[in-house]
From TrEMBL:
One Pfam family named in its UniProt record: SBP_bac_8
Organism: Oscillibacter hominis
Domain of life the protein comes from: Bacteria
SUPFAM superfamilies: Periplasmic binding protein-like II (SSF53850)
Signal peptide: 1-22
Keywords per UniProt: Signal
Hydrolase recorded as keyword: no
Keyword Transferase: no
Protein name as annotated: Extracellular solute-binding protein
Lineage of the organism: Bacteria, Bacillati, Bacillota, Clostridia, Eubacteriales
Annotated PANTHER family: ARABINOSE-BINDING PROTEIN-RELATED
């Protein structure tokens, strides 16, 4: 039975390679790879590559050889040099990790494999649709294959919230909407004597996803910000008022920093940030308190659709010869299959990429986890998988610059107006200013 299953796996792995480019175990092809995974993820990747090379790779004639492991910034620098043809640029690897914005640079110059040529529609249907769609570029081709993803969730200090709720009647259900967060922030600010209740790691994400929740887009057809709608005006007011009044925190770091000191009750951020939330907080006077965190689905603007952002790196394959491309595709299929993929992300806050992982394997996987934080996060994300649409941000070349500029301008406006106190601009005047 085991031999039959192994043979079946090998047949499936070869789908799409073509009969003229048979892999030959007597003459193995070496596939070079760069990635940016460190710590536990590097250990898992090393283990999986060794396992592949000694099993499927050995039987098919494929050797995966990792020739560079570096940080995302260092990897991107090297990849940019290659894409731009800079003097002294290193040789392009056969497989490398990255985001769609990097893929655009290579795809425009015809340097990437369209993975639709090596995956059938049936094979692709096994993966979460939104995760696959993020890897498609302007020509519709699939150039970034999903490996480890994340979404955004609500982190809640349950200990602080319960204390607050016991005296005020606040309900956890109010945390399901941004309007509810705004209302509770005002209540908490008064109850606590001026402490802040909520913050977002990215106010740009709140606006972008909020617009999608309300059936619109933060961008127009030309890729420019579109801030003149009533939907955006509502999002802006919902955030602006409690930020200026003091209930929302505007911070130049990650919200987990404020959570560690008890200066926040809840925050929205990436599911991959779960490991930055511990089980204690340390107050400014040095007092340490044991606390418990709950993980809740991403909030929705009232009247909107349950939608959350998804993002994360993937794998790209360089154009070379058909045999190498075929070998790379065999490895991608094996690596992203549920069993291997769940092992790869098991000790992190990242999410698997197949429907089988979410719909069949996740429950058993969560039971085996030692880290209660990851278990809680996956429980919330599993609920979102069943009830939310996952939104993919656009990948046009100026997206990063526009989102960064918006974030900086928005936070500067909120900070300045809060400092003005009673003399702060009205919502309408502030909205006019941010729209300029």
């Amino acid at each position: 039975m085991k031999q039959f299953l192994a043979s079946l796996l090998l047949i499936l792995c070869l789908t799409g390679c073509g009969s003229t480019q048979k892999l030959d175990p007597k003459n193995p092809v070496t596939v070079t790879m760069w990635h940016n995974y460190g710590g536990d993820m590097q250990e898992s990747m090393d283990y999986l590559i060794d396992k592949f090379n000694s099993t499927v790779g050995k039987e098919q004639g494929i050797v995966i050889n990792v020739t560079a492991i570096s940080s995302s910034s260092e990897l991107n620098e090297s990849l940019n040099m290659i894409a731009n043809g800079d003097p002294g640029a290193p040789e392009m690897p056969d497989i490398f990790t990255g985001y769609p914005k990097i893929a655009v640079l290579f795809q425009e110059k015809g340097m990437l494999v369209n993975l639709d040529n090596y995956f059938t529609a049936e094979e692709l249907s096994a993966y979460v649709d939104a995760f696959v769609e993020e890897g498609r570029l302007s020509d519709g081709g699939l150039y970034v294959f999903p490996l480890a993803k994340s979404t955004e969730i609500l982190y809640l200090n349950q200990t602080l919230f319960d204390r607050f709720a016991a005296e005020t009647g606040a309900k956890v259900e109010q945390l399901s909407t941004f309007e509810g967060l705004a209302e509770l922030s005002r209540l908490y600010y008064g109850w606590s004597g001026g402490k802040q209740f909520y913050s977002a790691d990215s106010w740009f994400n709140v606006a972008e996803v909020g617009m999608v929740q309300l059936g619109e887009s933060l961008f127009d057809d030309a890729g420019m910000l579109s801030l003149n709608s009533d939907a955006y005006a509502h999002i802006f007011e919902t955030i602006y008022c409690p930020s200026v009044e003091g209930g929302f925190a505007v911070y130049d770091g990650y919200s987990s920093d404020l959570s560690k000191t008890g200066d926040l009750v809840c925050s929205t951020g990436s599911s991959a940030g779960i490991l930055f939330y511990g089980d204690t907080i340390t107050y400014s006077d040095g007092t340490v308190e044991d606390v418990e965190y709950s993980i809740l689905p991403y909030p929705v603007f009232e009247g909107g659709q349950t939608t959350a952002l998804q993002r994360g790196g993937g794998l790209m394959v360089a154009k070379s010869d058909e045999k190498t491309e075929c070998a790379a595709s065999v490895f991608l299929k094996w690596l992203t299959a549920s069993e291997q993929n769940m092992l790869f992300i098991s000790s992190t806050g990242y999410l698997p990429v197949t429907k089988q992982a979410f719909e069949q394997d996740m429950a058993g996987h969560m039971e085996s986890l030692d880290d209660a934080r990851i278990r809680k996060m996956l429980t919330a994300v599993l609920s979102m998988y069943e009830n939310y649409d996952l939104f993919t941000a656009p990948s046009f070349s100026t997206f990063d610059a526009i989102s960064k500029s918006y974030e900086e301008d928005f936070k500067a406006l909120l900070t300045e107006q809060r400092q003005l106190g009673a003399e702060a601009l009205s919502v309408q005047d502030a909205l006019t200013l941010i729209r300029k």
